[in-house]
Amino acid sequence: MKDNKARLIEISVDDKTERPLPTPPWLNISSLSWLPDGSGLVLTGRDLETKLFQVWLVSYPDGKPRRITNDLSSYAGASLTSDGKSLVSVQSARVTSLWIAPNGNADQATKISFETGKDEGLSGLSLTPDARIVHTKRNAGTSDLWIVGSDGANPVQLTMNAGKNYAPKVTSDGRYIVFISDRAGKNDIWRIDLDGRNSIQLTRFSAILGMPSLSADSKFVFFETRQDKTSTIWKVSIDGGEPIQLTQSSSSRPLPSPKGDTFICDDG
Predict the structure, then answer these.
(1) Which of 22, 180, 189, 250 could bond 63 through an S-S bridge, CB–CB 3.0 to 4.6 Å?
(2) What is the pLDDT of residue 209?
(3) Residues 6 or more apart from 180 whose CB is under 8 A from it?
(4) What is the pTM of this model?
(5) Dmax over Cα atoms in the chain, in whole Å?
(6) Torsional sign, CA 222, 223, 227, 231
């Protein structure tokens, strides 16, 4: 199976032989520039750990990477001056915030979060029965779940020191939060109490994709997983146990009906 990683390859101009540089793989590499003395390369790339586009210096020929930038911005392109003492790149910063729209009226929406660069809610948010907001917040390459009042007051962190956590869904009775986490080494579905306690792993698959959804009575979690290169829909009890496969052909994005007797999904 193709791993879709980017790697640096050295190719001889004379005999066309190839030699991979002994540097870790990247998710993407968007630009390359040689240092004037040939001792290294400056690149902008997404590393596997943070998944952010940063500016890196890769020494040559040993391929050891070292960060030039280390922040939550993204950088596109890198060009060096002729003496190699200065470089230019394009910096972009994504800003997301939480907003409340009373009675669904977007014209009256009010911003309730102000932490620039934290990507609040970008990786999922969900309302509790008492109108509090469970949402994601990013910090230094990690993603955690928080809960906050509908007026932005009393924010409380629910997950910490437990990998990346995202795609939260609050059960209809307000008891649990179901979400995706890689705390056990790969993306799986977990459940915690609304106060962040009592974490329980609900699935053990090689890959959980998209965002989970809950049945109307919140007794089952519907989700998408990939096995043998095919994405299919499954469900698992909110209390854990053996997951049940619901589709055999390629399918994604499950959404149970309000009555709970059917669900819709993307086909193919």
Answers:
(1) 22
(2) 87
(3) 165, 166, 167, 187, 188, 189, 190, 208, 211, 212
(4) 0.71
(5) 70
(6) positive
